[in-house]
Amino acid sequence: MLAYTIRRLLLIVPTIWAIITVNFFIVQAAPGGPVDQAIARMQGVVSMGVTGANDDLGAPAQGTRASRGLDPQIISQIEAQFGFDRPMHERYFDMLLDYALLDFGDSLFKANSVTGLIVDRLPVSISLGLWSTLIIYLVSIPLGIRKAVRHHSQFDIWTSWVIVIGNAIPGFLFAILLIIVFAGGSYLDWFPLRGLVSDNFSELSFGGKLADYFWHLTLPITALVISGFATLTMLTKNSFLDEINKQYVMTARAKGASEKRVLYKHVFRNAMLIIIAGFPATFISMFFTGSLLIEVIFSLEGLGLLGYEAIVQRDYPVMFGTLYMFGLLGLLIGIVSDLAYTWVDPRIDFESR
């Protein structure tokens, strides 16, 4: 297993290179780059990355600049400011060299380095992704197992209704409902509406800091959990139902094994494989993309919002920096998922594959 893990770790390098390379050339070919954004901002054509009626940023760069009648010297200065006065291949190889040294450069529109921006946004993303994923798995797996064991019972029926309702309500809509009811919208004012901690957080005791931290996270995590646990619960139930009806389970029961031993000694390992297989995608979704609207609604500045702002503003260093982080984390979690396969079911041996 050690040799397999080393091979997978070594494969991270060419995989990340391929991701960055493909996206680099796709982004370079897209209209409305940083230079056009800067020119449009100077002329008041664009606000918050949204083009005006003439769609100046959607046209090819040279045509839009000529139609604006700007001084070519000013355009040259802006191109030099953003590094676009050099050929594309030079910028590409410089980027690869910097990324090999873990130097992601500086943001084009924010007064900070890309690394600084990512570090500043990490606490929010880690808080939302870690706690929501942990709660979802701690609730969904036991609930799915119980529903499978008590299939067609009253418990299975009413919990299925709860799951259907939870699955039908989008997370961002449930977040708005929570704000209206519990965050001073129209009824109760129990929870704060914005931020990860209070303004006086540094003055609180350790217990006070912990309570304040979870006080701010209660509503956003609840919104993420409600929208995320339904699918995993039904996946767990169906996986266990499929295994419970197989021949080896009937054989174990015929030999006198208890239901608890049959469920957790035989069924659990086989049924959990599909759950583990979906863990990387679930974690990445909760950690970044799934929390974007939640971050916006609760005024939390995380990596999801940072990546979205970079795309809208064509902030290339931030775009590629966050893409690098997303890709690297996804590949590492994939390796952890494979290791979990062998832990759950020792019969799986990746060395022979």
From TrEMBL:
It is found in: Cell inner membrane; Cell membrane. It comes from the Bacteria. The chain crosses the membrane at residues 9-27, 124-145, 157-183, 213-236, 271-298, 318-344. GO terms for biological process: microcin transport; transmembrane transport. CDD domains: TM_PBP2. This is Inner membrane ABC transporter permease protein YejB. Residues 122-341 form the ABC transmembrane type-1 domain. PANTHER family: INNER MEMBRANE ABC TRANSPORTER, INNER MEMBRANE ABC TRANSPORTER PERMEASE PROTEIN YEJB. InterPro entries: MetI-like, MetI-like_sf. Its main location: membrane. NCBIfam families: PRK15133.1 (NF011712). Belongs to the binding-protein-dependent transport system permease family. The lineage of its organism: Bacteria, Pseudomonadati, Pseudomonadota, Gammaproteobacteria, Cellvibrionales. GO terms for cellular component: plasma membrane. It comes from Gilvimarinus xylanilyticus. It holds the Pfam family BPD_transp_1. Probably part of a binding-protein-dependent transport system. Probably responsible for the translocation of the substrate across the membrane.
